[in-house]
């Protein structure tokens, strides 16, 4: 009876350690989703006037206020205003398109009013005589209209104590701030919506992974699988399984992964040309220098989505009888299992690293297995001696 008992003890210890390791690995958060859209380089402040900023100590500082221009990677131009009252963003800084939550406007109840200002002032409203009449101002130039619009945006975004230096620009700023309604956040110029926080779609090989939905203002966009997808025979198809090379807004895309394909990942890149919606934000490495779009030519935009297909864990055939393993073998198996790729509950592959929160659990499991192994050895060695005693009678003769 001792041998089955020893096997049961070792098996119970191994099974008890397994879930602890798995739970530690599963605690890793998924990567955040990358936004699609346009990227650009800031050319500089192009159409502007002056504004006077009042500091908390009552000091006054004159700063430039007006329209910037940005060159879009791949072609196109943007006109933008500053969001934060930095005064002057740095030319040649790189910017990427972002949602409001990724900028200074995150949680700002006035964000929708800023978009209203952009839609109802210069350069969207480029009839300067009509704009001046609506605002109750005298004659407006492009420079004074840009300065007044920027001042209104700063007041709404920052609550800044700032005034336009030009009286007509100040009247425009007051009018825009007073009359601003609330508009919703505009959509991205181009984005892919996998419907998952992590920005990936997952599933087993031999199936279609998706859908990934195209979101864009462009009439048509190109669809290109990356080199890894091509090398593994992964195709990007529509809902009927037809290969896709172009798509429109709302089009669903799927990754078709051949059966038997080893664990892997592949991406699809969608590119097109469209106007960046007014009110989209562009951010750089300096939060205070974020820009918000006031006008756009046709501009290049791109977005990427990724598919991940883990292989299902191998299952032992039913009825298989295991053999007794030594403590060292079980410890090695436990350590190997701790670095085997697992599937999280939603099917995403977990990252593997040389060290994790499971390391103390693995070490404890290994020590426990070694101790249990020693107990098994003592039990197995003791049994023959007891059997011999049973066979020898009193006086040292065999019974």
Report on this model:
The chain has 399 residues and is an alpha+beta fold. It folds into three domains: 2-28 and 324-391; 39-179, no CATH class; 190-275 and 299-309, Sandwich (Immunoglobulin-like). Helices cover 31% and strands 27% of the residues. The protein contains eight helices and 16 strands. The strands form three sheets. A six-stranded antiparallel barrel has the order 1-2-3-15-14-4. Strands 7-16-13-9-11 form a five-stranded mixed beta sheet. α1 (2-26) runs antiparallel to α8 (359-391). The two termini are 24 Å apart. The model is unreliable at 1-34, 318-363, 376-380 and 382-399 (pLDDT under 50).
Number of strand elements: 16
Q: What letter string, H or E per element, gives the SSE order?
A: HEEEEHHHEHEEEEHEEEEEEEHH
Question: What is the 3D form?
Answer: elongated
Order of strands side by side in the largest beta sheet?
A: 1-2-3-15-14-4
Rounded to the nearest angstrom, the distance between the terminal CA atoms is 24 Å
The biggest sheet amounts to: 6 strands, antiparallel, barrel
- Which structural class do the helices and strands define? alpha+beta
Summary tags:
6-stranded antiparallel β-barrel; disordered C terminus; 3 domains; alpha+beta; 399 residues; 27% strand; single chain; 5-stranded mixed beta sheet; elongated; Immunoglobulin-like
